[in-house]
Amino acid sequence: xxxxxxxxxxxxxxxxxxxxxxxxxxxxxxxxxxxxxxxxxxxxxxxxxxxxxxxxxxxxxxxxxxxxxxxxxxxxxxxxxxxxxxxxxxxxxxxxxxxxxxxxxxxxxxxxxxxxxxxxxxxxxxxxxxxxxxxxxxxxxxxxxxxxxxxxxxxxxxxxxxxxxxxxxxxxxxxxxxxxxxxxxxxxxxxxxxxxxxxxxxxxxxxxxxxxxxxxxxxxxxxxxxxxxxxxxxxxxxxxxxxxxxxxxxxxxxxxxxxxxxxxxxxxxxxxxxxxxxxxxxxxxxxxxxxxxxxxxxxxxxxxxxxxxxxxxxxxxxxxxxxxxxxxxxxxxxxxxxxxxxxxxxxxxxxxxxxxxxxxxxxxxxxxxxxxxxxxxxxxxxx
Length: 383
Ligand SMILES: Nc1ncnc2c1ncn2[C@@H]1O[C@H](COP(=O)(O)OP(=O)(O)O)[C@@H](O)[C@H]1O
Ligand SMILES: [Mg+2]
Known about the structure:
By secondary structure, this protein is an alpha+beta fold. It folds into 3 domains: 31-136, Beta-Lactamase; 138-215, Signal transduction histidine kinase, dimerisation/phosphotransfer (DHp) domain (Helix Hairpins, Orthogonal Bundle); 219-383, Heat Shock Protein 90. 45% of the residues lie in helices and 24% in strands.
């Protein structure tokens, strides 16, 4: 009888162990943070995902209140007033609370955005504890923000296209009339020339704006990099002058035509110039140099006198969303790198803090003729 009971007991123990093993496996492998608390809000369970998100190991938090560990204050440092904290309330009134957006504190003193659910555990109608499940929503927030900016940019692009067209039509009329008048107003000719050349400049800028505003299909043609650089510079020159920045372009006259997607490269060069200008809060010079490197490739350099890039940031540049600017998107360098790689080219960054940054681009003259270059996908970063 005793022996039979013992066997039974062993079977029960095995089943219980198996059940425990299964549950632990599930809780350990899910991506959500899971925190079990008792009725006094002391932590009794803390899964590996919670460890990863907060930096606290289970043994550091078991027995402490969830409040003290992750939810002691709001984002701005102010404490929760009585009855305001959803974890308190779930334990108090036995209801489930879901919070879409809040913050939890980490061991290192920083916080991360979370969405979380607190579910009370009831036994015979009384609350004996609760389960807090939470998800880090940093990436979700970034994606939402990215979509918002893309939308904003595309609206700005559409507007720019409309405005450009509207200015272009009256400009054409004015230009025509000036040409008509030119023969009659001989003595005023110098003024007319000025007006005409100014109008030409506006036309050029509007043309550039239209190209940028419209999403363009990638098209490879033989192009003059010097002219391309000139157009891009025209677009940004005025903004440069406003910030006391002078753009100086030096193009080798023997520069060969290269096979490229003009609009793609323009986007790259605009990104580099904008970054250079944004790095030069106190003004200065931006030098653009373009020359033939060898039989197969050309070399283009963007040299600025800006704030420079610290070593620890260098390797992160080009990662999506890496930005040091309050209103930056961290997408410019990533997109530029991709476009250069699509040309079979390479990009390298050399920088010295407080001195300036040089971006060096090597592009093959003929894309198809140098298939080997296509494999050099990673950009070389130098300090
Ligand atoms: N010429 C430069 N001088 C200094 N920092 C630069 C330069 N170019 C890029 N960076 C750094 O690289 C980051 C990423 O640039 P980018 O991808 O264009 O995004 P964003 O300009 O929106 O920040 C910038 O935030 C900046 O810290
Ligand atoms: Mg940028």
